[in-house]
Amino acid sequence: MNSGMTEPPDAAHPTSFNLLDEPWLPVVIDNAAGGDVPLTTLFRIASRIDRLGAEVGTMNVALLRLLLAILHRALAAVTPDSADESRTIVEELRNRWDEAGLPVVLDYLERHRERFFLFHPTMPFYQVADLASPKGEVSELSRLVAERPPYLGTRSTRGLRRISAADAARWLTHVHAYDVSGIKTGVVGHPRAKGGKVYPEGVGWCGQLGSLHLVGRTLLDTLLLNLWAAVSPAEVRDHDLPPWERPPTTADESPELASRPYGPVDLYTWQPRLVRLVGDENGVTGVVLTYGDRFIVQKRQWVQHIEPMTGWRYSKPQSAKYHEAIFMPRTHDPNSQLWRSMSTLIRPGAERAPTDDLPAQVIEHASQLRGSSLLPDGIVRLHATGVTYGSNNSVLDDFFDDGLDLPGALLDPEQRALRAVAINAVSAARNGTSAVWKLADNLARAAGASGDSVNGARQEAEALAYSRLDPLYRDWILTDLTLWEHDLLVSEAHWHSRASTELYRLGEDLVHQVPLIAWRGFDANGPRSDVGQIFVWFQRGLDAAFPKQRAQQTAPDPQYQPSEVSR
Predict the structure, then answer these.
(1) Helical H segments across 24-139, by residue range
(2) pLDDT tens-digit series, residues 366-404
(3) What distance in Å separates the CA atoms of residue 490 and residue 483, rounded to the nearest whole number?
(4) Distance set, CA 1 to CA 140, 230, 280 (Å)
(5) CB 3.0-4.6 Å disulfide test: which of 149, 195, 370, 389 passes with 408?
(6) 3-state class (DSSP) for residue 304
(7) For the chain, how far is it from start to end, CA to CA, in angstroms?
(8) For the chain, counts of helices (H) and of strands (E)
(9) Residues of the chain with pLDDT > 70: what percent?
(10) Model confidence pLDDT, tens digit, residues 254-283
(11) Is the pLDDT at 523 greater than 70, yes or no?
(12) Percent helix, strand, coil in the chain (nearest 5)?
């Protein structure tokens, strides 16, 4: 808290900065920054927008979920009851957007215009109008604008005194989705405030997810591809509402909280924070922020059926604690690539055990859209986003942002053999990479290294191996895998050949960088493995990792010494 910062004297005007009319949503058009547009304009020109263009990927996800919530509600009358019906409806909407979809969406937004004022005196968008600390203190903007990596690449909040209303609206949406944990302000009337504080209650809902969504040729296609990836159960669909269709939020706990979230709309717009922006249409200078609606996912396992943008993992410790099968959202590894998680993206078979991981519903949804005009060339484009928190979840520590193009045939539940080959190829890559880092380990020891130096050599070699395999796998899965789907042994052999050849070359590169002492096989302490023996072990490791295509290489020439070799 900044005790020197107090409320500005002028109250905000109810007619100022309405999100329907004011430009605040960043977009990319023709692969160039298209500036900011209002909500209504975004839907009008959605077919000409490439994608959202926020300064960080997590903000794009938060804004996408907001837009999907609007579409869910605006198009509630045509909500599909089956996957087949969903495909028919979204294709019809795409073909007749201007005359059939757009008027309905604009009419819906106009009906709720009053709830989209950012500085409304009694019901400001995504905020609590009278939120205040007991002493009237206001926090600095660092509580709203993310400061930790990778955000330091875009701005630093140190010394940040004012941001525009448009910027504040974007970060307001982001803070509900990805805010860090930690002690927050004990505002007046908060049921869990103690001594002017509310103690940690976890990160925002999106921060708990390994977010996945489908990407189309245009923003309109992206919205329609992800629309109805999950729907509310019919019996509670009328209760699956966004904040602008509920009574204005207060510091009191929602009376329906025990039954919520009701469906994807509720989750897309979930308010785990209570917020009030301090400022007006001319700029925002501070924020009051604390914990809002909360839920423990272990006690609301039904969310796995209504949250489509994440996979789920079975948790043995949580299952033992709660005496039932508990699934937790699967997050992304910031040190990995999305394709390395292929076994969690798609099911290798039709049957699953009670403790098997659950793929994201959005991928299952994409499988129903195979052959649709919304998926040109039969390719499904996935985009993955996530964050890693540090220091007891109180800071943003790392960031994940990656994409992956999959052939539509790979999502066909009947193509079990095809799926198995794609998954097995990742396993082979993992084993091949193990051979590389073992080579690096042995070479470092042969050169006299130990401790952290050996660990560093292993980690660097592993990263190099995956970086070299990354473009190969992405290309192979779109070409060889589907080209030879009638003879998967050939497809698999192609992968083994390409991957083993690339890793063999990397092994040669590593060998050619070792000092001469590593070739001698001894030092002052006596005999040790020399490079020749180490490389034979490496070859055996590659042969075991890629048995479908044995490498026909020979050991490197010990006389080859490039100029960069240390002596």
Answers:
(1) 39-44, 57-74, 83-95, 102-111
(2) 999 988 999 988 899 999 999 999 999 999 998 999 999
(3) 10
(4) 7, 40, 21
(5) 370
(6) helix
(7) 57
(8) 16, 14
(9) 90
(10) 888 999 999 999 999 999 999 999 999 999
(11) no
(12) 45, 15, 40
| SS3 track for 306-347 | CCCCCCEEECHHHHHHHCCCCEEECCCCCCCCHHHHHHHHCC
The CA R_g of the chain, rounded to the nearest whole Å, is: 27
267-304 b/e with 16+ CB inside 10 Å = b? Answer: bbbbbbbbbbbbbbbeebbbbbbbbbbebebeeeeebb
Q: What is the pTM assigned to this prediction?
A: 0.91
Instruction: Count the neighbouring beta carbons within 10 Å of the beta carbon of residue 416.
Output: 14
Residue holding tokens 């923003």?
219
As a three-state string, the secondary structure of 483-524 is HCCCCHHHHHHHHHHHHHHHHHHHHHHHHCCCCCHHHHCEEC
**3-class secondary structure per residue, 363-408:** HHHHHHCCCCCCCHHHEEEEEEEEEEEECCCCEEEEEEEEEEEEEH
Counting every residue, how long is the chain? 567
Coil/strand/helix, residue 298: helix
Helices 416-446/488-511 angle, 10° precision: 10
pLDDT reading at 234 higher than 90 = no
Report whether 386 contacts 331 (CB < 8 A): yes
